[in-house]
């Protein structure tokens, strides 16, 4: 049986490797990785004081700036509103369709800091001919008359702030054509007059929901000789 030497201890192997490094690596200017790392850490620890002071001062400035911004928000500061002027907004609305003065005032109020600004713009627009509540009322009647009765149209005119005198005048005009307009609306929906109470109630509700007067509805649904 051949004899084998006992395994070398860890300390013995480490010492042997150190001797080999001293013999081979040092003449070539090589260094252990651990030695290089220790030197870098030592150099980092020797950074000039002014670098550290500059970093600390920069952090302090950022902190003060953040605190100032927060104070402004807490105080309720709001950025200046950007966008078209009140008059330009109003002209934009009017270029799409006619508006009553009261309706346009409600739309502009969201963009004005002072209600007086809105009134001044509306006065200027009326003077220049851009804004006319009377023209708006006539336009609304023209758009609604073929589908709705006088009661419903009058209600909408009042909601838009049209003058009572003009509303009364337009209501008389609508009442003069109420029967003919209601008959056309009824013909588009129904093919024949009601034959029983249920059918009568259904057709009457339809015409009433459109704003036509009850006397006109009775004439249409009860007159057997009307086409």
Automatic annotation (TrEMBL):
GO cellular component: cytoplasm
Entries under InterPro entries matching the protein: RecX_HTH_1st (IPR053926), RecX_HTH_2nd (IPR053924), RecX_HTH_3rd (IPR053925), Regulatory_RecX (IPR003783), WH-like_DNA-bd_sf (IPR036388)
Residue ranges annotated for the RecX second three-helical domain, each copy included: 134-169
Pfam families (alphabetical): RecX_HTH1, RecX_HTH2, RecX_HTH3
Keywords attached to this entry: Cytoplasm
Domain RecX third three-helical: 178-221
Record GO biological process: regulation of DNA repair
Region (Disordered): 1-91
Source organism, top-level taxon: Bacteria
Stretches assigned to coiled coil: none
Primary location recorded for the protein, binned into one broad class: cytoplasm
RecX first three-helical domain sequence ranges: 89-123
Subcellular location: Cytoplasm
HAMAP family hit by this protein: RecX
Function: Modulates RecA activity.
Record-stated family: Belongs to the RecX family.
Official protein name in the record: Regulatory protein RecX
Source species: Achromobacter anxifer
């Amino acid at each position: 049986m051949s004899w084998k030497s006992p395994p070398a201890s860890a300390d013995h192997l480490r010492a042997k490797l150190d001797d080999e490094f001293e013999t081979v690596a040092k003449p070539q200017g090589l260094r252990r990785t651990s030695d290089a790392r220790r030197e870098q850490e030592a150099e980092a620890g020797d950074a000039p004081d002014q670098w550290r002071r500059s970093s600390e001062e920069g952090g302090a400035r950022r902190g003060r700036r953040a605190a100032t911004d927060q104070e402004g928000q807490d105080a309720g500061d709001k950025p200046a509103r950007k966008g078209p002027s009140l008059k330009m907004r109003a002209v934009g609305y009017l270029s799409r369709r006619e508006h009553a003065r009261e309706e346009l005032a409600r739309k502009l109020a969201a963009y004005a800091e002072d209600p007086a600004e809105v009134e001044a713009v509306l006065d200027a627009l009326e003077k220049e001919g851009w804004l006319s509540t009377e023209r708006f009322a006539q336009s609304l009647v023209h758009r609604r008359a073929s589908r709705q009765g006088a009661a419903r149209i009058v209600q909408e005119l009042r909601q838009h702030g049209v003058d009572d005198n003009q509303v009364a005048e337009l209501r008389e005009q609508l009442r003069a054509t109420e029967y003919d307009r209601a008959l056309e609306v009824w013909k588009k929906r129904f093919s024949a007059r009601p034959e029983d109470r249920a059918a009568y109630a259904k057709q009457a509700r339809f015409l009433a929901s459109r704003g036509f007067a009850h006397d006109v509805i009775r004439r249409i649904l009860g007159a057997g000789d009307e086409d």
